[in-house]
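agent> fetching stored inputs for the D-glutamic acid docking request
agent> found them:
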Amino acid sequence: MKRNPIGVFDSGIGGLTVLREITSLLPGESTIYFGDTARVPYGSKSRETIERYSFEIAAFLAKHDIKMLVAACNTASAFAVPGLARELAIPVLGVILPGARAAAQATRTGRVGVIGTEGTIKSGAYVSAIKAENPGVSAFVKACPLFVPLVEEGWAEDEITVKIAERYLAGLKEASIDTLVLGCTHYPLLKKTIASVMGDGVALIDSAASTAAEVKRTLAERGLLNDCVGAASHRFFVTDSPERFMVVGKRFFGDKLSEAGLAVLTEAQDAQKT
Ligand code: DGL
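agent> prediction call returned; pasting tokens
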């Protein structure tokens, strides 16, 4: 079991930011990444749809004998992780709890901002998780739907993106937050732009890094860390256009990205048999 891969899934390409952190913190672990590129974006879809998609993906990854499932997608973490954690026999981790915990620990003034997709923000998952960590924290939220396409276009630091960030983030600046959670897979690539708009006094919390640390802690706790010497393998599956995944994915994962296979999903019920 220790040698089995960690399954990581996302609505598409952005989850590679989480995979990158996991593989750099745990270089001995094998991974299987699943990007649902045929059905991206998840950020504007309903809870029911995201739950269904997530269970289908979990069923696919279960067939590859994963020892742990990581929802790298913030929207899937907000909507589907509680259900997946109840149904699957392996540990399931999303990006919300690690990010919320890191934010609650980082804030000095107790004023925390959260940005994400429409779905993530509407779900209230980050706010509940931050308040569960520290009920004294005031949380301020803002959905920033244009950030995802801007990053995928390669315009993370373009002047247009700075202008859009200024507009999205104005309310959070006014709220005098001292900590901002980057609650979406794509936002770590906007760190420079967001930092320039928010100013030096605001700490940016990258859920990807906190999630990798939590993956390590969870595996260690369950005796599942891979202590066998040998090359780790990294496999990639997508539901549409492996070619585009390779081109855009390099922006997120660098040259270590290897050929992705095309996945065909089947019934979600299979996930519950694991
Ligand atoms: N992966 C999604 C998230 O982190 C962003 C892209 C999408 O909307 O599917 O919420």
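agent> quick read of the result: The chain has two domains: 6-94+209-270, 96-207.
agent> awaiting further instructions
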